[in-house]
Amino acid sequence: MTTVLNPAGPATSAGPAPAPGRSHRRSGSVRQRIEIAVLMTPALVLFLGFVILPVVLAAVYSLYNLPPAFRWEHLADPERFVGLANYERAFGTPEFVRAIGNNFFILIASLLVQGPLAIGIALLLNRPMRGRSVLRLLIFVPYVLAEVIAGLSWKLLLQPQGGVNAALEAIGLGEWRQNWLADPDIALWTLFFILTWKYLGFAIILMLAGLQGVPEELAEAAAIDGASWWQIQRHITIPLLGPTIRIWAFLSMIGALQLFDMVWVTVAPTVRSMSTETMATYMVQQGQFAGQPGYGSAIAVILFFISLIVALVYQRFALRRDLAGAITRGVR
Amino acid sequence: MTATTAITTGRPPGDLPERRPAGRRFDLGQPFVYLVALVVAAVAIGPVVYVFLGGFRTTADLNADPAGLPDPWTLQNWATVLGAPRFWGNVFASIVLAGGTTLGVVIAGIMAAFVIARYDFRGRQGLYTLFTAGLMFPLTVAALPLTLLLRTLGLHGTYLGVIIPSIAFALPTTIIILVPFLRAIPDELEEAAQIDGASRLGFFWRILLPLSMPGLVTVGVLAFVGSWNGYLLPLLVISTGTLPQDLWPLPLGVTQFSTQYSQDTAAVLAYTSLAMIPALVFFLAAERRIVGGLQGAVKG
């Protein structure tokens, strides 16, 4: 997932103010225009051609019934135009509706479990201690690994004859053994566990980084006034950590809605379609491997709008202060 | 920040029966803190260690006692994996993809960011907004049409077919990070360079570029790691193409290997751990960049 380090985006864009009063410089001269054109062109062409265009095309394709060997002429064929039928089909397919539910399950469970866990651990670890930098390295390891590689490792560990079941037996909890990733009743929970393992370290590091910005004087002052450790955390540190928590929650939610790699790699297709399908895996399965690019594109558009709505609603209600409209308003 | 509101919610002084010096309580919690730290670290790296150790075992040993230590230790799996061209081909492909993406992102990104940050013209604001809006267009949504588009362009099944879209999707983050960076460089420097006879581009090349090196490194590291770990794009563009498996990037190569040799668990573990090493080494080398980038990010 490439979006993971995006906190750098919204937060810093609200940073340094643009230097004013540059207008005295030959604005509008031919030379300047050429420079702007030459410098902007590569980024602009790439961005418009490979980010914006495909998303627009997804919307167009979603209105067609397209064969796997797609050609542009198909778009001119009125027989292939099906209007909103792909969307009707998607919302009428239990597997896809369940996929939406699974995405929201992961989203909510992540917020409820990973958030408090990360904050709690970060608060505990936020003090001078031996081996702090080593510890920071270690808890960041799962995050650095590719989702695919982490997923494969867990898949091996969670096999019926794998390390986890053997370890349970070794400590006398043999009856807890499960077919973790192949039992449709528990596969989604297993998946959530793996995701928590993968992303908790990132959340902890992010919270620790946020805690660096909380002035120690406040906690000291409160301690002198007799506040307990817990009162200090509850009434001073956590509220001051608010912006970090809200940005983490935003990243976590967007990640949960886009979830693909981990599910695709760890859960066998048959089990996936029964219990752990996500919007993205369903999209790739139908659009690419079942050879229905039109239907797959409709799924992509639905995924886009769900993500957009979640992002906008969240930004409206939670991120407003932190970003000060960084995304919607731009430079200033 | 919310400092002022937070302080007022604190308890009034003297409300508590006992006053103790601040430092003492923290010391009492210390053993507990180390315990938590130990547990967290163990959970984080436990599976990784298991995979690494598994690479030193035989499959028979693994089947007999999945949770045990290697008995006997063997280097056979590593030798097999490292001796086959396949692993090196995967590494080569990943390096080409990640290297190409990084180079492209840095070059296209700094050029665009330079214009947005330091030129004054109509539409500057619009351009910036356009790129920031790109954050809302995830690769997942564009993936299917992108694959078809690449077929039309004859790029499907090629490295360029992965590199070009990867650059495009890394541009928003890159520009958002670089613009404030370039803005922060004082105007006086530019004026001084101008007086000394440097053109706009001369200033860009000789002064701005060296000064923005830290920003470029951060952006480059992000792009490299993102591409190195990327799976969806290679899956759609490469695995369905004609490129031989020996030249697939690592994430694809590892999944393919694990399917193909699913009976030989030890070999799969060795292959998986070898695939982890480059990312871990790179992370160790760039750790301060990555974590430092995060710290910078949340200070806003």
From TrEMBL, chain B:
Transmembrane segments: 32-53, 91-115, 127-150, 162-182, 203-225, 266-286
Gene3D superfamilies in UniProt: MetI-like (1.10.3720.10)
Organism per entry: Agromyces indicus
Protein name: Carbohydrate ABC transporter permease
Domain ABC transmembrane type-1 residues, every copy: 91-286
Keywords assigned by UniProt, alphabetized: Cell membrane, Membrane, Transmembrane, Transmembrane helix, Transport
PANTHER family: ABC TRANSPORTER PERMEASE PROTEIN MG189-RELATED, ABC TRANSPORTER PERMEASE PROTEIN MG189-RELATED-RELATED
InterPro entries in UniProt: MetI-like (IPR000515), MetI-like_sf (IPR035906)
Chief location bin: membrane
Record localization: Cell membrane
Highest taxon listed in the record's lineage: Bacteria
Short name of any one Pfam family annotated for the protein: BPD_transp_1
Region entry Disordered, spans: 1-20
Entry's family note: Belongs to the binding-protein-dependent transport system permease family.
